[in-house]
Write a structure and sequence with these properties.
Elements (H helix, E strand, L loop, with lengths): L1 H6 L12 E4 L4 E4 L3 H10 L20 H7 L1 H12 L1 H6 L4 E5 L5 H14 L4 E5 H11 L7 H11 L2 E5 L8 H17 L2 E7 L13 H8 L1 H11 L3 E3 L4 H4 L8
Parallel strand pairs: 3-6, 3-7, 4-5, 5-6
Antiparallel strand pairs: 1-2
The chain binds adenosine-5'-triphosphate, magnesium ion and zinc ion.
């Protein structure tokens, strides 16, 4: 994968990608300018960054993205802008979020961003909301009591954290606390987050209209407020479920 090769090079052209430079006159090795990034990338390798098969070969000129651009032109334009300047965006800790009803293209847009970040050699962690919390929960069972902190630390320092379906898990106090640790850690370090989120049923306001504020009630206002600052205004993708559009509906009658 292109991302793997790029992580072994030095972006300042000073070392061989190991993060160390040898001063041949004094014969002493010292840390290269890229050392912090190399450490971050090594640490990020332990995180999940697998792109599911469905999203592996996506592109702006391949369906369904042109179709999504017809139904949600502003969102696709914003994603393209982000992808075109992905290095700059990640350096500034800019994020993006996609809210809306099922089957409207939110995940495709989010994966376009991850794909560009990986191709640019950036460290990326990709999780569904439930899987992320599950991994954190699992570290509690381990002997090493530092492992929860260590995982949170990794999740805080990876250059891009991509969370799919942030709001599906029924939030308990514990869940909200972990979410806060991650979101606040990234907020303080000015690290990018992108995420998608379905808001249906209870979380929608009267008349079935989606309310981004409902996410605030769901994940707590202090998480919501940080996300709002990091990700800007949410991109709201509403409309009919395009998964259903492919079906004949014959079974319904
Ligand atoms: N605007 C669109 N026009 C045509 N097809 C689309 C559109 N948006 C999504 N699709 C199709 O719908 C399916 C779901 O897309 P995607 O997974 O990106 O949606 P989603 O919004 O993330 O859904 P969910 O909220 O359920 O996760 C895919 O098969 C995709 O090809
Ligand atoms: Mg999705
Ligand atoms: Zn270097």
């Amino acid at each position: 994968m292109a991302g793997d090769l790029r992580t072994r090079t030095c972006e300042y052209g000073l070392c061989d990608g190991s993060g160390m430079v040898v001063d041949w006159d004094a014969n002493v090795p010292y840390r290269c300018r890229c050392w912090p990034e190399q450490v971050g990338r090594r640490r990020a390798r332990a995180l999940s960054r697998e792109v599911p098969r469905r999203f592996r070969n996506i592109g702006f000129d391949r369906e369904p993205v042109p179709s999504i651009a017809r139904t949600s032109p502003d969102a696709v334009r914003a994603v393209r802008r982000y992808c075109d300047r992905v290095d700059e965006m990640l350096e500034q800790g800019e994020g993006m979020w996609f809210l809306g009803s099922p089957g409207t293209g939110k995940s495709h847009l989010a994966y376009l961003i991850s794909q560009h970040a990986l191709a640019a050699g950036r460290s990326v962690a990709i999780y569904t909301g439930p899987r992320l919390l599950d991994e954190i929960r699992r570290t509690y069972g381990e002997d090493d009591s530092g492992s929860t902190l260590d995982l949170i630390d990794r999740l805080t320092s990876v250059e891009l954290l991509h969370i799919e379906d942030l709001a599906v898990a029924r939030p308990t106090e514990w869940v909200l606390e972990q979410l806060y640790n991650i979101i606040n850690g990234r907020y303080e370090n000015e690290r990018s987050i992108i995420f998608t989120c379905d808001l249906t049923g209870d979380e929608t306001e009267e008349g079935g209209r989606l309310s981004p504020d409902a996410l605030g009630r769901h994940i707590t206002d202090r998480n919501f407020s940080r996300l709002l600052e990091m990700c800007g205004d949410p991109h709201v993708l509403m409309g009919p479920d395009n998964r259903r559009a492919h079906n004949t509906h014959a079974w319904e009658s």
